[in-house]
Amino acid sequence: MTILTTLIGTVAFALIAPVVGCLLAGLDRIISARMQGRVGPPLLQPYYDVRKLFEKESVSVNSVERTYVGCALLFAWVAGGVFFTGGNLLMCVFIITLSSLFFIMAAYSTRSPYAEVGAARETLQVMAYEPMVLLLAVGFYLAAGTFDVGDVLALDAPVITTIWLVFLGLLFILTIKLRKSPFDLSMSHHAHQEIVRGMTTEMSGPTLGLVEIMHWCENVLFLGWIGMFFVWGNPLSIILAVAVVLAVYFLEIWIDNNFARVKWQLMLKSAWAVALAAGGVNIAFLAFL
Amino acid sequence: MAFASKSPWVIHYDGSSCNGCDIEVLATLCPGFDGERFGVVNTGNPKHADIFLVTGSVNEQNIGVVREIYDQMVEPKVVVACGICACSGGIFHDCYNVIGGVDKAIPVDVYAPGCAVRPEALIDAIVKGVAVLDEKSKALKESKKRGE
Ligand code: SF4
Question: Is-contact B78 B51, C-beta < 8 A?
């Protein structure tokens, strides 16, 4: 895997992922509205929102906030570039974590009490999902014999056949990663205020637009991880992967609409318990049997 | 093309309303009228909001708050005075501590009368406000182009 492929992949991801992510976000809002007995916004509503945010006056509480958010977006693109060019999964995991850290720094830098609470909660969220994400990488290595995502195309059977428990664990933390209720502690998309709006409390206009785009790109990347489990040597498996990804996304929307936000203690405990039970047991089986 | 009109996020502040208008404002934003069809989102954060819905009159206690919220909102922004109290002080106009309508504190773009203001009147007012928002957005763009 050369640097050049990763670079080209990053640029391609930076162009394509926002489009896909935006459409997914639009679908999310329509489906959520239908679940609540409403008509809901047009499909392109998230796009309109972001365009509007970029049209707004550019104000910022300090000079570094937007730089941090920009870095977070940049590293989300690189992580996507690494993943979708078939690069190293472990590398992708670390880069996307770096992106989250930049976002946390952006929230802390504003010195607003609500944003700081949001940032502290985001740190807890990272702590909650990171063990499972690392076990995902380890499980993937044991199942595929390599960390390179591209090598799944040479497998005789998809990795889901050997690490389905890890897959279930990933499904659990995916709710945290996609910022869906019951785990949308640091920054919710629905009730836009105070602690619930958390990290983005002080961000406005173009900065908020960048956050939104980063969120779309992250969503595409995480759904890519889900799809990865279902791809093997057969080219038709890509269709299966896309179908599974859409089903999982629908499941996440359903969860989002049906569960109330939990306290961080429960999130942390349950995420670690799931990581240990799902990831740990699966990996122990693969490593020792 | 201005996108401001396609995604008007609103913030609601209760001045010294009797709560009649607040109930109507929230009713307007509830699923029954489904404001999200037009991109309306109810935010609680002035920094994210485009339209400021104020109910009730301005008095000595809240004039600072109203101004603070207005100042925190990012241009282009629009203010809608909801209900006759917010327009002119209404039934409370000669109370000892009431200063008057919202326009005594901040510039108001659209006046929605009624006691209490009906959701239909409010939707009309928001639609008017959205047109003003578009104008302001265009003006901002032009001033940006001129490099001001
Ligand atoms: S206009 Fe009427 S309903 Fe509205 S706040 Fe004033 S008195 Fe209450």
Answer: yes
